[in-house]
Fold this protein.
Amino acid sequence: MNPPNYPASLAAFISRFQLQLPQASQISHNVRPAAVLIPIVCRPEPTLLLTRRADSLRKHAGQVAFPGGKTDADDGSAIVTALREAQEEVAIPPQAVTVIGQMAPLDSSTGFQVTPIVGLIPPEVEFHANEAEVADVFEMPLREALTLSRYYPLDIHRGGHTHRIYLSWYQSQFVWGLTAAIIRRLAQQVSL
């Protein structure tokens, strides 16, 4: 039965996400755990909340990302990490997030094994960027984000190996790397 306050498109997404097995991940060579929150804002037209990292950051400056970061020793789970980081970066109260599941971890180019956590956010939650970490917060319609044809492959040759990354754009935002890979994998998981 659909929760009464979710639009039909969001209820269908939740069902498909929870009924499909996540893609098997490759054997990870990364040992440092991290997690990101994939915040889905429960608007009549559901949206995906994304951030653009501050230009002053040492790593991934100016890149579009999900709220998230490395796991602290006392976090206890990827869910706790994702919720803690989302609160620190964009002021999403952990109690406002309805976690519907997690995806298989992905390896980052910086040596982290990143676990994406999918959570639903009520539309009345106000987002406030932590200016030390986040330059911008924006929303992308979930329907658009989950359109597989919007992700363009690019093969990069580095260190004698070929790595495939994905590129996408939304309005003036350039989405690529791990963030694009996570959204694309989510789109694959829920596609029928």
